[in-house]
Write a structure and sequence with these properties.
The protein has 225 residues and is α/β, with parallel strands linked by helices. It contains six helices and nine strands; from the N terminus they run ββααβαβαββαβαββ. It has a seven-stranded mixed β-sheet with strand order 5-4-3-6-7-9-8, with helices on both faces. A two-stranded antiparallel ribbon has the order 1-2. The longest helix has 14 residues.
């Protein structure tokens, strides 16, 4: 036995039902080799990757109709991989990334559940540069500004992996870190537009959920430590 229990969810996205293996609940935890601890994932946060959250559903819904033709796409913090699976279903060129020890195996299992080919996956700790990953036309993530330090880390990721005319799409439930992140993105030449009231999330007032779209024209190089 793996030390945790799972369930199979059916998630309708864009007129198609996706089957997703998820953790049974937020009480699941298993780290027999200490890999999660070495990755800095506390036991209280371990199970968060294994759920389908409202922000994740909103991002997947967006990806079901977003223009992705000819674009190389990077998903940050893919978790169970719903948005990447939606993109794979559409034939998009997507690389899913996360740093949870089980993210890759759950993504592979969920691709199989939906009769999809394997989705490209990379283990990607945000604070460690990966020069082999390359640059992308579209970078996406749901609830990736979870902690204050994530604003700086994601901004640095954009410097490393965004093409000059790249777009970043984030679904955010109102964590309070959007302002500092948007200011950092403005230094890189990105403007932001917001679509408000897309979804609710636990612990937040109705209508807090938003879709943030960052685009830029002329690029101003900025050094980020």
């Amino acid at each position: 036995m793996p030390g945790y229990t799972t369930r199979i969810l059916t998630i309708p996205v864009g007129g198609h039902d996706f089957r997703i293996r998820a953790l049974s609940d937020l009480q699941q935890f298993s780290d027999p080799t200490g890999r999660a601890e070495r990755a800095g994932i506390h036991s209280s946060l371990w199970s968060l990757f294994g759920q389908i959250w409202p922000a994740g559903r909103a991002l997947a819904d967006t990806m079901s109709h977003f223009d992705v033709a000819g674009k190389r796409i990077l998903e940050l913090g893919c978790g169970l991989g719903l948005s990447s699976l939606v993109l794979a279903h559409r034939g998009a060129d997507v690389v899913a990334t996360d740093h949870h020890p089980l993210a890759e195996s759950f993504l592979a299992y969920n691709a199989g559940l939906n009769n999809l080919p394997a989705v490209s996956y990379r283990d990607l700790p945000w604070e460690v540069p990966d020069g082999s990953l390359g640059r992308f036309d579209l970078i996406i993530g749901s609830d990736i500004l979870y902690e204050r330090g994530h604003a700086h880390q994601v901004a640095a990721m954009m410097l490393r992996h965004a093409k000059p005319d790249a777009e970043l799409l984030i679904t955010d439930p109102g964590r309070g870190n959007v302002g500092s992140f948007s200011r950092g993105m403005a230094l890189q030449g990105f403007d932001v537009t917001e679509e408000l009231g897309l979804f609710e999330d636990e612990g937040n007032a109705p209508g807090n959920g938003r879709l943030l779209s960052y685009r830029r024209g002329a690029v101003r190089p900025v050094a980020v430590a």
